[in-house]
Design a protein that fits this description.
Blueprint (H helix, E strand, L loop, with lengths): L1 H20 L5 H10 L10 E2 L2 E2 L2 E4 L2 E9 L11 E2 L2 E2 L11 E2 L6 E4 L5 E5 L5 E5 L1 H4 L5
Parallel strand pairs: 6-7
Antiparallel strand pairs: 1-2, 3-4, 3-7, 4-10, 5-8, 8-9, 9-10
């Protein structure tokens, strides 16, 4: 009977070790999971849920929300600009420094070509990119 109990115990420990060692998630994967838990369908980047994807126009270029938080650690405190006007959530901005999600947000040009980073009310910085850059963007 002792051998049977020991066998069951060893099998349980073995299963626990297999399950515990099978998780290859790194610490950085976990922190990004909250931002990227829903995959973005890049086939129609302008539309999400019937409205236009959050976007902003800066210097004549429209930048779309990538769904990613910025990973930049050392940031200059000076803003490159500010969103000063807004259009409807169902429209793409047509004027510089205009967004379809509100005004008063500061932005800086991103470290990657074709990106801007916008500081939202939660204090976090979010990456916005041109359509061309967004199609293949990974932080």
């Amino acid at each position: 009977m002792k051998k049977f109990i020991m066998l069951v115990f060893m099998l349980a420990v073995g299963m626990f070790i297999i399950v515990a060692c099978g998780d290859k998630t790194t610490k950085s994967d976990v922190s990004d999971a909250a931002v990227t838990d829903v995959p973005i369908d890049n086939t129609d980047m302008d539309k999400i849920g019937g409205d236009i994807c959050p976007c902003v126009m800066v210097n004549g270029v429209v930048y779309y929300d990538t769904g990613y938080k910025s990973t930049l650690d050392n940031r200059c405190e000076d803003m490159d600009g500010q969103i000063t006007s807004e259009c409807s959530g169902s429209e793409v901005p047509t004027e510089d420094n205009q967004s379809n999600f509100g005004k008063g947000y500061g932005y800086q040009y991103g470290s990657d070509e074709g990106t801007v980073e916008i500081q939202m009310t939660d204090g976090n910085w979010y990456v916005f990119a041109t359509k061309e850059v967004k199609a293949n963007y990974k932080p």
